[in-house]
Specification:
With 98 residues, the chain is α+β, with helices and mostly antiparallel strands. It is built from 3 helices and 4 strands; from the N terminus they run E-H-E-E-H-H-E. It is globular and about 40 Å long.
């Protein structure tokens, strides 16, 4: 069983970075606190871009990932951040370390 990786690149609406990061950091905390099968959840900002955020999430398996998508706080995060995001690109992958 392979771990599931989610790579997300977000274009944040100009002037909304602080508002987005506040919500994203709170969401990250809820995920890490409530989902033991979330093995990693990182939020990064490329040095050469003002409005880009990258999320890197790792889940134990596909079942853990699907559970994450169905949580009430994930649904709330999507709704709360929708107006702050111009574009969202998601890539789902599996770890190939072993």
């Amino acid at each position: 069983m392979s771990s599931v990786v989610l790579l997300v690149t977000l274009n944040i609406v100009e002037g909304q970075m602080d508002a987005y990061l506040t919500l994203a950091r709170a969401h990250r905390g809820r995920v890490l606190h409530n989902e033991a099968d979330c093995l990693r959840f990182d939020i990064s900002k490329p040095e050469d871009s003002e409005n880009i955020i990258q999320l890197y999430e790792v889940y134990k398996d596909d079942e853990a990932f699907e559970h994450h998508l169905e949580t009430s706080y994930m649904k709330a995060y999507m709704e709360d951040t929708d107006s702050l995001i111009e574009n969202r690109n998601r890539v789902k992958a599996t770890l190939q370390n072993d």
